[in-house]
Write a structure and sequence with these properties.
Blueprint: H1 2-10, E1 20-23, H2 30-38, E2 49-51, H3 53-59, H4 66-80, H5 82-101, H6 104-114, H7 131-135, E3 157-158, H8 166-177, E4 184-185, H9 203-206, E5 214-216, E6 219-220, H10 221-231, H11 236-246, E7 250-259, E8 264-273, E9 281-286, H12 294-301, E10 305-307, E11 313-315, H13 316-322, H14 332-335, H15 350-364, E12 369-375, H16 377-391, H17 395-398, E13 401-407, H18 415-424, E14 430-434, E15 457-461, E16 466-470, H19 487-508, H20 516-524, H21 536-545, E17 547-550
Parallel strand pairs: 3-17, 9-12, 12-13, 13-14, 14-15, 16-17
Antiparallel strand pairs: 1-2, 1-10, 4-5, 5-6, 7-8, 8-9, 10-11, 15-16
Helix pairs in contact: 2-4, 4-12, 5-6, 10-21, 13-16, 19-20
Organism: Panicum virgatum (Blackwell switchgrass)
GO molecular function, one term: triacylglycerol lipase activity
Protein name: Fungal lipase-type domain-containing protein
Amino acid sequence: MVALKQQHLAAGGPKMGAEKLIIRTEKVRFIDILSMLFLRRPITSYPFVEAGDQTAADFGSTPGDWFVALTQLIQKALAGAYYPALMIGAVVKFLLNFIALNNGILGIFLNIFRCKVVIPLNREAPNFRSMIAMIDGRTELKPLPVGGGPDDRRLQVVGVSVGISNSLRRRCRQGGHGGEDDYYVDAVAEPSSGECGSTSVPLVQQQYVNGRLIRLRTFSVFEVTVMAAKIAYENAAYIENVVKNVWKFNFVGFYSCWNKFVGDHTTQAFVMTDKASDASVVVVSFRGTDPFNMRDWSTDVNLSWLGMGAMGHVHVGFLKALGLQEEDGKDAARAFPKAAPNAAGGKPLAYYKLREVVKEQLGKHPSATLVVTGHSLGGALAGIFPALLALHGEQDVLDRLLAVVTYGQPRVGDRVFSDFLRARLRVEMLRVVYRYDVVPRVPFDAPPVAAFAHGGTCVYFDGWYKGAAIAAGGDEPNPNYFDPRFLLSMYGNAWGDLFKGAFLWAKEGKDYREGTVSLLYRAAGLLLPGLASHSPRDYVNAIRLGSIAAMEA
């Protein structure tokens, strides 16, 4: 009966009631988890489950499966570790910064002798680094080779044939695509077409084929987005220093935003443009999952969702991080109204604040386009942000959207959400996944209770940075992480990543030399395969060293 209802709904049948499934993990008891595994009671019958009337009718007697029970166990463990992890994280970050700011262990003793010991008490200082920056301290953007072309092995597509004559390329550049220091979309067209910037070529191919790249000055859009996603983990002063003094871009602002359901500033993002005047691009980058914040990790795996009308079912935790107002599964306009709610002083809501800043910057820079990015939890927010713009009819912003590129992004919605994005956005979202990274494999795709699905084009890299573009919402291998058929491969890859991390510099140069912190983090992957693969370091390496093979959907 449930299957028939699901078929009816998928076919576009009317939904008159509220659609939501909120699992209150704090109310879940161990006996409830056992009940889900063995008694197979209807999922909506548990007191810790809040289901909309439409959802309850759709599910009927559908029980919670083992993925639901496993998720509750994981969230219970994360909740128990919340305060210890915060304290451990604070100590670890203090010690690592103490060592780094004093130039190592020997430097500490020398500075003690000189009475010049640096103590990192100000966590908002531009030289205070997060755990992510301790794992990968690189800040410089790596420029493309002059002129791009086949020598740019980092960004080639393997197995795709798209030609263009040199004379046509020259005409396209002379016709307004700009010079070396300007943003441009280089020509992508067949020689016979005589047209520039053919939209028939998918975005992933436009960015990779033989140097005909979407570029920010002399940098590929992938280089800029992966580095922006990486530094988004840092404090405001650190980010501003890198953007202004290292990248020579224009720093617009850093925004720490309020989550009314948590009662804290849980969402951070920054905005930059490539130039202070007459900019060509506006970049929004969301901060991702803090390694020591178990609440962030719990949000990533949470199975709760909310019906958002035409948007489909969307992960409720990510909606809350962006500024959700009500857990209303019947009226999306009430849950997430178009008009910005009155925010209390110092408590901006992420979606509304960033929408305001983006519109202001696009108005200030008439030729600019918009790029949205993020890693981990930040990637989830980057994926939902343009969907909310589409839901609210912000077509003037969407018409200038150039790219949405996420790294290690968890699932954020169901197939309806993915189809909504594909239909409403002028570009295909690109979702980069490295090896067995655990985060893109959560929350579990556990239909019908939680039918989470990825959308957009998946750019999947293996451990040696050989990539494949998997189109049409295709998934990476081992999509729910716990498939026993992949166990040996996952542990083998964890050992391979540790070995590669130790010796990659010998082949690729000093930029790829890893320190003790990075190698210890990789060693954690020997205990939990896929954890170390979530590090932004491998995503940066994949963008700089990887090649892409186009795959059929």
